[in-house]
Amino acid sequence: MKKVLFVCTGNTCRSPMAEALLREKAVEGGFRLEVRSAGISAMNGVSPSDAAVQVMKEKGIDHSSHRSRPLDGSGVAWADLILTMTSAHKQMLIRHYPEAVDKLHTLKEYVLGDSQREKVKSLHRLQAELETCRALLEQARKEGDLLREKELQGKLKEREASLASLRKEVGEMMSRMDVADPFGGDVEEYRRCAAEIEVQVEKLLDRWKNERES
């Protein structure tokens, strides 16, 4: 059974709606999934926003019992697939959990075509390698290992150059990878957000359906 984790900021608007929509549509499509959500700045036990509850009820889904949870290492380890609402969320997770880079995607990038998705994956793999290299370099400096420090400085420069080149190539595409936060907006803003998420969830299930049938 695939374990999917949606991540946003406070875990009261976007990621709970994505969780509820995927859980509902997965059942309809015959997929066996375990779905959760969390927030990078979430508090424990906060109810979803009233507008989010209303919009989900309009779609025949009651997720009023949802309670927010902060993202932590155990949640990252639990998930087979982590889908963030924005690139900024993903970047933060890569910095804190570089070992999880291969299962980290924004929701929108995950449903891209194969070639586009591979470019984005390469970009984030380079970012994870860069963070690891920086940590090792700092360790070498603390230990006074000059030979290791010089070697890592060379690797760091190589990865920074590769990353800059790849960022130019995929930068415009990445700017469209975010689901805007409706927090503080009116119910119409929540409806637009939910509709945007629903389209992406349907694309996600279409991808899995094609993979299952191939």
Q: What is the H-and-E element order?
A: EHEHHEHEHHHH
Tally of DSSP helical segments:
8
Strand order in the largest sheet: 2-1-3-4
Query: What is CATH's topology name of the domain at 1-85 and 179-214?
Result: Rossmann fold
Give the % helix. Answer: 55-70%
Mean pLDDT: 92
Tell me the CATH superfamily of the domain at 1-85 and 179-214.
Response regulator
| CATH architecture descriptor text of the domain at 1-85 and 179-214 | 3-Layer(aba) Sandwich
Strand content: 5-15%
Shape: globular
Strand count: 4
Which structural class is indicated by helix and strand composition? alpha/beta
Coiled coil: 123-207
InterPro entries: LMW_PTPase, Ptyr_pPase, Ptyr_pPase_sf, Tyr_phospatase_low_mol_wt
Pfam families: LMWPc
Family: Belongs to the low molecular weight phosphotyrosine protein phosphatase family.
Q: TL;DR of this structure?
A:
The chain has eight helices and four strands; from the N terminus they run βαβααβαβαααα. It is α/β, with parallel strands linked by helices and 214 residues long.
